[in-house]
Specification:
By secondary structure, the chain is an alpha+beta fold. It has five helices and seven strands; from the N terminus they run E-H-H-E-E-E-H-H-E-H-E-E. It has one domain: 3-Layer(aba) Sandwich (Aminopeptidase). A hairpin with a 2-residue loop joins strand 3 and strand 4. Helix 1 runs antiparallel to helix 2. Bound molecules: coenzyme A.
């Protein structure tokens, strides 16, 4: 099944608000407010490039991919619930190599909250741990950084 990434640019699909709200609910109020800003305030759209993930032509979720020096940073990644738990997440990250190459990036990088389990997903996809930063965004907010060469 073909996986593709359509830049959202100024457009926002109707399902996005619910997906972002549902995804960030457990990340805390700071991230909830931040997500609202970066997804729905046009001033920030260029800074946080959002892509609609398409699988076999169907909308499957959203990913923000930011080129930073040699890294393509996965800044936000969420699949619509019906696409989760089917082994698609790792395939989508493999397909994101296309976006990385277009920006001349050499690796994918992501940071995850230490208190949540999402890093296990990235480890399962072949990412390696490269660091931990204390109080990265908020007090008591340790972030674990992971990367994967492409
Ligand atoms: C996180 C997400 C993108 C993963 O995609 P997915 O297609 O559901 O994941 P996969 O089916 O490819 O899972 C691959 C492996 O990661 C594990 N995994 C997936 N999500 C996980 C999580 N949140 N915590 C721990 N492990 C997880 C799976 O159990 C699987 O392990 P296995 O290979 O041992 O069976 C998806 O579940 C999602 O959109 N979740 C809600 C948003 C979210 O939490 N985003 C966090 C990313 S920063």
């Amino acid at each position: 099944m073909e996986i593709s990434f359509a830049p959202m640019k100024q457009r926002r699909p109707s399902w996005l608000a619910l997906l972002v709200k549902g995804t960030t609910r457990r990340w805390g109020s700071v991230w909830q407010a931040h997500a609202k800003k970066i997804f729905f305030d046009k001033k920030y759209f260029a800074l946080y490039p959002a892509y609609e993930i398409k699988i076999g032509g169907k909308s499957a979720g959203v990913i923000i991919l930011r080129p930073e020096v040699q890294a393509l940073v996965i800044y936000f990644f969420s699949l619509l619930p019906e696409f989760r738990g089917k082994g698609l997440g790792c395939k989508i990250l493999s397909a994101a190599k296309k976006v990385a190459k277009a920006h001349n990036c050499k690796f994918l990088r992501v940071d995850t909250y230490a208190k949540f389990t999402s890093r296990k997903f990235y480890l399962a996809c072949g990412f390696k741990k490269c660091g931990r930063v204390k109080n990265y965004n908020e007090t008591d907010d340790d972030q674990i950084f992971l990367y994967k060469r492409i």
